[in-house]
């Protein structure tokens, strides 16, 4: 049975990074205290993987878990294979999916999650959990070999969908397209 928590964003209103997610994550990961989370930082394009990892470690320190970024593994999949939980962060969905393919992580993540390993992702990390990234709002700053994503559930999501028109926006809304 799959065990997933997909989050729209790393921030909500005036809260700190991932702060609004802590009650859900504490409940979701209650049985995993002291275990290891494999963190996938590939979507983070405005900071280094080390910086992104540190940001997530600091934000989720109350969970009492060891958070290790996959970029520390000789083969990135080594970290995924050894992990008790998988987390994929937000940023640019195209960069994320491209590197998931480049590091051969699509199949191992899918296999582990299908076999019960907990998965949580926010923003782009939620996007790639679906069947494809065809509904992302992200700029295509690079191209993955396919838009097919992890296919952990048979739908596409758009974590930043805004219903209606934002004040001052004169273009079409999503509903008008």
Could you characterize the architecture of this molecule?
It comes from Haemophilus influenzae. Belongs to the peptidase S51 family. The protein has 177 residues and is α/β, with parallel strands linked by helices. It has a single domain (4-127), classed as Rossmann fold (3-Layer(aba) Sandwich), CATH 3.40.50. The chain has six helices and five strands; from the N terminus they run βαβαβαβααβα. The chain has helices at residues 22-28, 49-59, 76-82, 93-102, 106-114, 124-127, and strands spanning 4-7, 36-40, 66-69, 85-88, 119-122. A five-stranded parallel β-sheet has the order 1-5-4-2-3, with helices on both faces. The mean pLDDT is 92.
